[in-house]
UniProtKB/TrEMBL annotation:
It comes from Actinomadura bangladeshensis. The lineage of its organism: Bacteria, Bacillati, Actinomycetota, Actinomycetes, Streptosporangiales. Its cofactor is [4Fe-4S] cluster. Coiled coil: none annotated. The gene is nuoB. The keyword Thylakoid does not apply. This is NADH-quinone oxidoreductase subunit NuoB. Residues 47-156 form the NADH:ubiquinone oxidoreductase-like 20kDa subunit domain. InterPro entries: Complex_I_20kDa-like, NADH_UbQ_OxRdtase-like_20kDa. SUPFAM superfamilies: HydA/Nqo6-like (SSF56770). It is an enzyme of class 1 (oxidoreductase). One of its GO terms (molecular function) is 4 iron, 4 sulfur cluster binding.
């Protein structure tokens, strides 16, 4: 045990340096979110591919929380909505109500190709449209599903850290 402590003391910090802060991707009305962003995730009808990548982005490997981004359970506590999937007919009103519950200034992030343009679900019977057809979208993250690095980069753009 003594050798372990000696090794830790002589080695010092072995972590890599933090990456440079990203360019801010916020619209002008949401510049007050600097430093800390509370995110509410809404699954509007996705296949859960994006949810797996979100879990990875918030997990210990990518750890987006170290950049000041946290997931919250209530839209009333959120600064941003992270919406995945095409908006289904059953989720259209729920997404609108969730968007209305988020206090201003608020940001909407459309995560994945399905949220951006309905992806493979375009023109399906149960699909009401893309997220931008239901609520105004500020940031789009492409990919099917987007890589955790892209999710982290988009959320870092919101927090500015």
């Amino acid at each position: 045990m003594r050798d372990l402590f000696r090794k830790i003391r002589t080695t010092g910090r072995a972590a890599e340096a933090a990456p440079r802060p990203p360019e801010r991707t916020l619209p002008e009305r949401a510049r007050d979110l600097a430093g800390s962003v509370q995110v509410r995730h809404v699954d509007a009808g996705s296949c859960n591919g994006c949810e797996v990548e979100i879990a990875s982005a918030f997990g210990p490997v990518y750890d987006v929380e170290r950049y000041g981004v946290r997931q919250v359970a209530s839209p009333r506590h959120a600064d941003a909505l992270l919406v995945t999937g095409p908006v289904t007919r059953n989720m259209e009103m729920a997404l609108r109500r969730t968007h209305e519950a988020v206090p201003a200034p608020k940001v909407v992030v459309a995560l994945g190709d399905c949220a951006r343009n309905c992806g493979v679900f375009a023109e399906a019977y149960g699909v009401a449209g893309a997220v931008g057809d239901v609520v105004p979208v500020d940031v789009e993250v492409p990919g099917c599903p987007p890589a955790p690095e892209a999710i982290v980069a988009a959320l870092r753009g919101l927090s500015g850290r």
